[in-house]
Amino acid sequence: MNGTLTVGQATLTVTAANASRAYGAANPAFTGTETGAINGDTFTVGGSTTATTSSPAGTYAIVPTVTGANLSNYTVVYVNGTLTVGQATPTITWTAPAPITYGTTLSTTQLDATASVPGNFTYSPALGTTPAAGLDTLTATFTPTDTTNYATTTATVQLTVNKGTPTITWAAPAPITYGTALGATQLNATANVPGSFTYSPATGSVPAAGTDTLSVSFTPTDTSNYTTATATVDIVVNKATPTITWANPAAITYGTALSSVQMDATATPSGGTFVYSPAAGTVLPAGTNTLSVIYTPADTSNYTTATASAQIVVNTATLSVTAADATRSYGTANPAFTGTYTGVVNGDTFTVSGSTAATQSSPAGTYAIVPSVTGADLADYTVVYVNGTLTITKVVPTISWPTPSPITYGTALSSTQLDATGSVPGTFVYNPAASTVLTTGSNTLTATFTPTDTTDYTTQTASVNLTVIAATPVINWNNPAPIVYGTALSSTQLNATSSTTGAFTYTPAAGTVLSVGTQPLNVTLTPTDTTNYTTATKTVTVDVTQASLVVTANNATKVYGTANPTFTGTITGAQNGDTFTEAFSTTATTLSNVGTYAIVPSASGTDIADYSQTINNGTLAVTKASVISSLSLSTTDVPYEIPVTMTVTLQSATSGTPTGTVSFYDNGNLIGTSPVVGNTATFTSGGLTSPLPMGNNVISTLYSGDQNFYAQTAGSTASSGSVLVTPLDFSFVSTSPTTLHGIYGTSGTYTFHVAPIGGSYPGDVVFTVNGTNGPILAKYTFSQDKVGMYAGQADLTLTVSTRLLAPSDRHASLVGPIGSIALGLFLFPLASTKRFRRSSRKLARVISMAALVLLTLGGITSLSGCGSGYPSVDDPIVVIATSNGIQHTITINYHIDKSPQDTDAK
Length: 906
Hints:
By secondary structure, the chain is mainly beta. Helix content is about 5%, strand content about 45%. It is flat. The relative contact order is 0.04.
């Protein structure tokens, strides 16, 4: 007999290595060691811990982990490590403060350290301390709020304390006048700390006029913390002003020049220079005048320039003015009057003018001219005036007579040409006189004008030239009545007349066919008398209306899905030899639905605009197309109840995709319909709900047609095929050796596999056994006594259990009929099934069970007691699988080995 070797697992010890980190840091990568690996196996040791970045300082277990290809061959013993989380050192951020000046107390500007975690700072020196001048060390001690996870730490920075500069207060002194000595009023600086002042210039000094700088040097008593300071201010020293003495001079007459008699001022201090305004030699105007003087002292550094003034009276001189005589014509404006003057002094100039009582309408004669004078210095004179004389003479009248426009031969003179006008009232006498008919060419017309007012105006004559041109004949020609395109011009339209004899020439000429529209007709009249008449022209218009053109399209047909045919038609009504090309349009396209569509004709040609078109549409009839169907079957040979997929492909000789439905027939009987999708229709028949009947099934189809495709009729373009449906079956095969070995009183097992051939079994599959039970008394047990019709494939087990016989049973007689019947009744349930689905199946099962009972009885009668003394035997066993009359068997052999003496009976 075979034995069993059990291979146990080896022991692998995995130890995690200790590790440490600071609070708040990430865990390190955990490692460790392993011992106990054999056979060259290698492993990778890692670890994990419950400690996170935020876990407090302390110790935590490191639980080791191990991975490797052959880890399942080991029993793993894990030894934890320790993770020590220590206090973190806070980060202090403290930038060295900017230098300060002595006297500045420490504040948060200098004591401004910050930390990476919450806590408190203690500073040395403390807040509010005033550090001495020099380089000072500032210390900050930081105590974190969380003393469990963070350590106390310190930081230092250097602070530079510069010496203080004393503050000197010294306001700029008020201005002083030249000659004032410096004293405490000006030299009065103060400082904010004790010390002493030294001034420059010193007390008692007299500064010069101008802006002077005063300086002071301050030496503090505490030179350790303060530096020496200086300050300056500016003082303004104003110049002194001299004193001028000057009395008003005596009166003078206009024209007298100024001199030292009037310009006699004196000054203190003396020795300077005087500048007078106006200057010596100036002639002042009449009236009271102001004289000014500017005194410039010799010492201009310390004295300013001084000024003074005096008043002088200037009396007027005498001026004589005489108006000049003048002459003008009656009715004109007065001329500009002039004159002369005498008695001027000092080079003065004047303008003399005048005025008179005579106006533009005053009659011819003499009138007084009263003079007047203007000038810049007239106020400096007393004026004496002498009158002049204005003489008004007669006026020559002005005749206006524009050159008359040319007149046509035969036109008599009238006021249109004899239309001269005078500048004053009067009468005209013309030559030639009115109503005269002049000859062709250039003629001179003369007009003599006698004014009504002979006192103030003289008699005058004028002449103009008048051109007499040849006459243009008058043509009588009205617009002709409208004509239709194609009508040639004739005397009906070309019918102009004139009162002047001559010859007519027409454009276009007679016989011309005009285009449609309002067309111009021109005529030229050449007169017989070309001396007195010119050639004349006239234009009229004639309306040319469109001719009628009938454009007709012929009817046409086409099959759905095909291109439109070539359309034809006719054109009638063309005139004047015109030719046209006919074209056609329609809304129908290759895939337009079955129906009728208009064929719209159109005509084109060079002269198409000369016609009105009558369009007669044709009709395009679109008829249905035919389809040819082809049937494809997923299979042509199939077991009963297995689905068959039927696919119909519709093909058309034209474009387009058929729609509608396809009907499927089995042996002429309708079994289903399916919509056409794309150009195919699919129907599945068979399966459990609607299986095709067994035998040969002739499948045929018919297409229903749609709006654009004809329906199929039986025998036309329909498609067909056949499917052979065979009965259902199943396979029954062994999955274990066909010989079982054992001894009395033991059990053996046998396995087999059953599977349907087709969609299901023919019926429920029932399993029975036909065993000879020759020397073997056995009990047969199936893992399941049947497989349902639709259960699918299954694996089953048959257990054969043999009986251990007692010694007394070794010579026992065969069991009687009652025992046989009882044993048969015991086995009967193994062959029973539930209620039969079909009567044919029930009959088959009754027959099978009756046979089983007979076999059982036969087997029992062959049994005898067994035990020690029985030889080794082989007992054939037939396993039977039955489904709706279809039966398959498997024969196995149970080999009983020779057994030892049996003492226990069961």
